[in-house]
Amino acid sequence: MPAPIRLRELIRTIRTARTQAEEREMIQKECAAIRSSFREEDNTYRCRNVAKLLYMHMLGYPAHFGQLECLKLIASQKFTDKRIGYLGAMLLLDERQDVHLLMTNCIKNDLNHSTQYVQGLALCTLGCMGSSEMCRDLAGEVEKLLKTSNSYLRKKAALCAVHVIRKVPELMEMFLPATKNLLNEKNHGVLHTSVVLLTEMCERSPDMLAHFRKVSLVPQLVRILKNLIMSGYSPEHDVSGISDPFLQVRILRLLRILGRNDDDSSEAMNDILAQVATNTETSKNVGNAILYETVLTIMDIKSESGLRVLAINILGRFLLNNDKNIRYVALTSLLKTVQTDHNAVQRHRSTIVDCLKDLDVSIKRRAMELSFALVNGNNVRGMMKELLYFLDSCEPEFKADCASGIFLAAEKYAPSKRWHIDTIMRVLTTAGSYVRDDAVPNLIQLITNSVEMHAYTVQRLYKAILGDYSQQPLVQVASWCIGEYGDLLVSGQCEEEPPIQVTEDEVLDILESVLISNMSASVTRGYALTAIMKLSTRFTCTVNRVKKVVSVYSSSIDVELQQRAVEYNALFKKYDHMRPALLERMPVMEKVTTNGPTEIVQSNGETESAVLETKPPPSGLQPVSQANDLLDLLGGSDLTSVIPTAPTSKPASAGGELLDLLGDLNLTGSPVSAPVPQIAQPLFLLDGLPSQPLFSDIAAGIPSITAYNKNGLKIDFTFERSNTNPSVTVITIQASNSTELDMTDFVFQAAVPKTFQLQLLSPSSSVIPAFNSGTITQVIKVLNPQKQQLRMRIKLTYNHKGSAVQDLAEVNNFPPQSWQ
User: Fold this and answer.
1) Got the DSSP string for 722-774?
2) What pTM does this model have?
3) 122, 155, 290, 308 — which has fewest CB within 10 A?
């Protein structure tokens, strides 16, 4: 049989192929020749054939038929054969294949070989693909080589020991005696691999970590690091003017582990960290890598305040670097430290704000998140100005998060109500289509409570929507405000800015334009029609025009508009004496939660129209079948899930005849005395404008509890009791996220025993921001007629770090005031 071609010739031939098909043909032809050679047990050219087979494997072609040939080469006495055999084993074999167990005896013999290079091959192979069984059998030989005086073998044995510890952690103590003298070695390769081994042991075993702290490992590492910094030029280890940066980075990582939550170890490394931070050259990327590891170490240990300020200043310098990766790393690190070192990060505020103008979207997003984290009462005006500029020019994918962040910051740090209203209106004007669903009711609540700003607000909103209905949330708020405070707009009572001259007909023209505009959504038209109806009591000269508009929409194809118009027509025809009382100005609303929808918000700011509706609300209770599904989901036999609650008693109203009005309208065609369906009304009919407070004063005395705290997700419960029904407890959940990544698609579910009834309202969002920068709120109403001790089972589902998370928990520590 002729001699097979050499590897070099095969590579040259394959590279001449012009098409993929031609290359495959060459490979198949050569594979056939190699198979024939293997079948003939050709020992002369086995090494050459396996080498060619490995090259084909690297190109992506199947080479599994060469596995046993690799074992034959390993068993050979020739070094060249062993080298190719071990290389083939590392590429073609892994621990999932039983064939690799046949190598165990060969590797053991080679570990005790008289030639260090053969021993090195065996160590590399075991450290690369050794299974747990092989590691148990050969750990003794590795430990012996770790104690040898040969630095070539010691560095390979240290890396092999790392693999053994990862596969069989209980063998860790076997290598402990050998680690005593590893850091006294002068060879940098041994030092590097030794630090890697010590790091692995400290990360995997708290006992090992405590042991190394006791044996004064930190001073040894400090000495090595100091020698690296102070040593002169060494061509063997120099990289861009820095002595062995790879070893420096590894030592800094190990120091970070040893100094975490340990005062003595942190104190011992403070000086050397300061030296590294001040003496490292920053003109090259190598120096920046060392500085970044130094910063991480300083922030993770119990370091001095001056050292932490130095670390943050280094990150500030990173923000001025031309390399985008370095700027991104700096912003991410500052975002992690802003909660603990807020004032030090504030010094770099202008540089951070400049990063909002960066072309890179990743840097832009990190800069936006960090900017929101830097907002406080002292800089809120300047920061909001910059963030509003950013909102004007940023990409669409940023607008929703930016608008949400501005809303939260304005609510928390607003210097005045006028500034607060102006800021939110600016956001709605700029990015109204991207704001959260609760932005409209929250702004309406803010405007309602700012009594002295009513004239100013309605004038600003009126001018904002003149001829432009593209931003639907803005049009909804403007329609609501014009309906509420249209009389102030016409009378020109605005003192904050020059009043405008507007007639009643001009105001109605705007609202009618909203009704007929193709850009208006169904919800927006509902706002506009209700506003027109309200103006029938605010204006004196246009009542007949209002009647005509309302009557036109009594036959609208939009069922929602049609129902409103029919009800409003009934007010004009049958109950005109009650119309002023029903459409009177909204009272001051009080928010139930600090960061989410309120109880008043559930009516979407349109109390008068909601009073007249007899259909169940859009966010109504779940059907009983869904409740049973949740029972099966939660696995409870004695639990009841989201259950329709009974209708409420007659609410007080300004007209005093509210229930008669609803009964006489008889929109469904059923008899007046027909019973109300069980799910027709939620537990609290907030739209009925009750004359007494919804929640009792004893709510302030009910302590809050932490219902869940795991994996960075924390859920707190706060409680309130209803005055309209003392058996009802209103629980507000607040979910926060302390990890570095957002939790998305968050869903909270709850179930209670069958003696209770439970209603879940919609959450404020489905995304929990990272670093506790925001919360999700959701309201739970629990009916407890028998005043029994409250118990609850909760189910949480969300996505975090690219994977779905699901967890169940029991909540049994409710305070007695919440259910007695």
Assistant:
1) BSS-TTEEEEEEEEEE-SSS-BEEEEEEEEEETTSEEEEPPPS-S-B-STT--
2) 0.63
3) 308
